[in-house]
Structure formats: structure tokens, C-alpha cells
Amino acid sequence: MHELGITQGIIDRAREAAVANGARKVEGVYLVMTPAADFTQDSIEMYFEMLTGEDEFFRGATLHVEHRPVAATCLSCSDEFSTDAPHPICPQCGSLMVQLDPEAPMVQLTDVDIDDGEDGPV
Ligand SMILES: [Zn+2]
Q1: 98 alpha carbon to ligand 1 midpoint, in Å?
Q2: Which of 29, 54, 116, 118 is most buried by its number of CB atoms within 10 A?
Q3: Ligand 1 centroid to 107 CA: how many Å?
Q4: 8 A C-beta contact, residue 115 and residue 58
Q5: Structure pTM?
């Protein structure tokens, strides 16, 4: 249920940002995911739908997920590289003892598309 809390946190932050910008409704939520995440885009999408299905403010909002690589360090040969795999293999020595950047965010809210009622028919 780890992803549920993470998704809830994203929704809370998106709602805050949208309200701060005078939104009537959220139309899109933009996320960046890295391989540091121990869950899949599918589970985020599933929980997003589950948590916003009954929520007028988020109804019909689209989730946009961009995947970004993350910095990794090989613990065997100290090679540093960037990877989009959750369990990468060192390109230098083939070791599986690779540590992903501990500072890398698993998933991050980057933008929110809102309907502020200022354009289009009401
Ligand atoms: Zn290595």
C-alpha cells in the first residue's frame, strides 16, 4: 500500500497547486518517475484513478508520466553511469552491486494543468 500513500501525496500537492492558481478543476497532472521508484507506472495510474474517481475536482484529469534515468554507482569498480533500470548491471564490470543515487526522487510532481474558467465556454 506504499504506492497508495505516494499517489495520495501527489494528488494533495496537485490540488494545493491548482487551488493556489485559482483552478476550478484539474485537467492534467505531470509526473516524473525514475528507476529509484519501487513500483510501476501502472500502479500509480491505478491508484490515481481510484483516489480521484469520486473527486469532482480531478474528474477526467489525465496523468502524464515521464521516465527519467537516474545516476548510479557501481559498488565493485566505482564506475558512475546513468540508468533507466531499477536493478542495473554495471556497464564497466558487469557487477550487480550497483547503488542508485539515494537523493534521486522516486516520483515527482512537475506540473498541473488547470481549468481556471477564463477560456472557453462555461
Ligand atoms: Zn562496475
Answers
A1: 8
A2: 29
A3: 26
A4: no
A5: 0.84
